[in-house]
Amino acid sequence: MKSEMTQADFSKGKVWKNIISQSVPLIFAQLVLMLYNIVDRIYIGHLKEEGSMALTGVGLAFPITTLIAAFTYLFGTGGAPLFSMARGAKEEEKAEKILGQVVMLLTVSSVILFALLYIFRVKILYLFGAGDDSIGYADSYLRIYLFGTLFSMFATGLNSFINAQGFPKIGMGTIVIGAVFNIILDPVFIYLFNLKVEGAAIATVISQFMSFVWVLYFFFSKKNMYKIKMKNMIPNWSLIKKISTLGLAGCIMQATNCTVQIVCNKTLNMYGGDLYVGIMTVINSVREILSLPASCVGGGSQPILSYNYGARRFDRVKSGIKFTTFLATSYMLVAWIIVIIIPHAFMSIFTKDVKMIELGTTSLRLYFFGFFFMALQFSAQSTFTALGCAKRAVFFSIFRKVIIVVPLTLWLPTIGLGVKGVFLAEPISNAIGSTASFVTMWFTLYRKLPDTKLSDDNCNQ
Fold it and tell me: Which 3 state secondary structure label does DSSP give 127?
């Protein structure tokens, strides 16, 4: 760690190299982070006799884990761009103040979320689409998983500040440590101790705790420039408003994902039963894996865009936007083609159930049609967020998921498509929502960058 403690100046060097240097460790770190849940699903899905139903139960807990992630994004992704802008403007005290506010917000929200979700978890699971056959598995997983709420929110939310300082490898370490523990502990608790679904949850909580310890070690290290101080954790309502406003886009993206998962689970249960909820669990897992590199390219570009925007290097901001869009789109085109050719291979990773694989193969092809459009959404959203244009980022998060996906998910099955309608809603929304988001970003931000710094009116903050 000591050899890396040099603050990065993103106004120097080739922009594409800066983005790659941030994105590659981030991709690896986020890929490893997915193993927290992905490995759980793989092990659970291969349990003898009860694997399919147990997988469905874990899938029913997804909206709640996504809700926790939404609040993490609200403060983590809201504070990190402001932190980077302050660094770019050489306002070090302000940067440290922003860090302190985010620590306070993550702490308070994690305690409140844990209390509410734990008390009402069974009612929430039924509301989210659980049936009598799957509720036991869902509750067994969730009642243990929730004890890691604070650890999860800290590790994920504060990791953005590690990356924003130009330490992507240390940020990667946050994720790697937790995931390695999860990979090792999952089979121990699930199979050796025969705890099954509960074992997967225990392994996850322990892993999240290890990531939490790593993050705290970094911020309390003498070599770290920005410290977590109590005086900076006293609520500053002006900063809280800015953090929350800017982070609202990431929060809403997660919250809308939560909404879509709930609607999908309930609709699939209505038209296809618990088996299709399990299939959607697998499809969501595949989507998370395959969309991750493009998402991380967008995430990796944010500190570079924010820093250069703060330093008034608008030519570099434009270059970063173009490179991010090209790289993300190229990757997702390749990923889409692979899914269309071998969908059964992806299903087989998570289950041995012949019926689930057969039905899931068709559903996977439908869900991923036109997958590459998502690259445009990632590029536009990362630009909106990096440049502080919160309202546009929020609008397009809502537009694609709530305004398009939810109504389609409810309507398409009623016109004779049944469960196929649920899986078709996603590609339709990708094409319409992602294109609209990117075109708006291109004409309202990108083309205005060369002349002067964007005003608050330009960004509609």
Answer: helix
Q: What is the mean pLDDT of residues 373-390?
A: 88
Residue at 244: amino acid letter: S
Has residue 243 been placed in a domain? yes
Q: Distance between CA 59 and CA 11 in Å, rounded?
A: 43
Q: Report whether 164 contacts 25 (CB < 8 A).
A: no
The answer to whether residue 259 scores a pLDDT higher than 90 is no
pLDDT beyond 50 at 75? yes
Average pLDDT over residues 176-180: 86
The structure tokens listed for 150 are 């604070």
Average pLDDT over residues 374-391: 87
CB-based contact 83:95 (threshold 8 Å): yes
* % of the chain exceeding 90 in pLDDT: 42
Nearest CA-CA partner of 147 in 180, 122, 113, 179:
113
Determine, yes or no, domain membership for 314: yes
CB of 203 closer than 8 Å to CB of 189: yes
* d(C-alpha 382, C-alpha 238), whole Å: 23
Q: Tell me how many domains the chain contains.
A: 1
Q: What angle do helix axes 354-367 and 314-341 make, rounded to 10 degrees?
A: 140
Note the pLDDT tens digit of each residue in 191-241: 889 898 899 999 999 999 999 999 999 988 876 788 888 999 999 999 999
Tell me if 339 sits within 8 A of 365, measured CB to CB: yes
Is pTM beyond 0.90? Reply is no
Query: pLDDT for 2-22, tens place per residue?
Result: 444 445 667 788 888 888 888
Place of tokens 């734990």: 118
Residue 460 lies in a domain: no
Q: Can you tell me the distance from the alpha carbon of 150 to that of 158, in angstroms, rounded to the nearest whole number?
A: 12
**Residue whose token pair is 């004779």:** 416
pLDDT at residue 251 tops 90: no
Burial of 358: CB neighbours in 10 Å, binned 0-12, 13-18, 19+: exposed
Written as six digits, the tokens of 203 are: 């392994």
Measure CA of the first residue to CA of the last residue in the chain; give whole Å.
38
Nearest to 277 by CA among 55, 43, 34: 55
Please indicate, yes or no, if residue 292 is contained in any of the structural domains.
Answer: yes
Between 57 and 140, the more confident residue is 140
Whose CA is closest to 369, among 433, 427, 423?
A: 427
Q: Which of 427, 135, 395, 400 is nearest to 265 (CA)?
A: 135
The 10 Å Cβ neighbour count of residue 318 is 18
| Cβ atoms 422, 412 nearer than 8 A | yes
Three-state DSSP class for residue 150: helix
Q: What is the residue range of 73's domain?
A: 14-452
